[in-house]
Specification:
The protein has one domain. About 50% of the residues lie in helices and about 20% in strands. α1 packs antiparallel against α2. The longest helix is centred in the last third of the chain and has 37 residues.
Amino acid sequence: MSTLLNALGVSASGLSAQRTRLNATASNIANVQTTRGADGGPYKRLDAVFRTVNGGEGVAGVRVDEVREDQEPPRLSYDPGHPDANGEGYVAMPNVNLVEEMVNMITAQRAYEANASAVDVTKKMARSAIGIAEG
């Protein structure tokens, strides 16, 4: 039974990590045009950093080590009429690539779905094992 619980733990950790990744990606997409954040500069892309975790029996899970700001410089866009334009007419835009974020969102969704499927399979195996033990 502990093997089934370990499998559930691994899948649950994957679900949690992918949910955090999806939240970071959603924030990036929502702020793709945010030129002035709390620090006065453009929004900085967020990236969830994962780390593997070893269980007592060598079973690995995953956890979010940190959600960090991407240190790539902002994109410069020529828009002299924008209120945040510099003296040369350029606006510092977030370092977010919308196409890249959509790919990240799709892969995170698929990983989340794979972990959810693994949870369902593990639950079915546990039910079958209980049925065999009772039978």
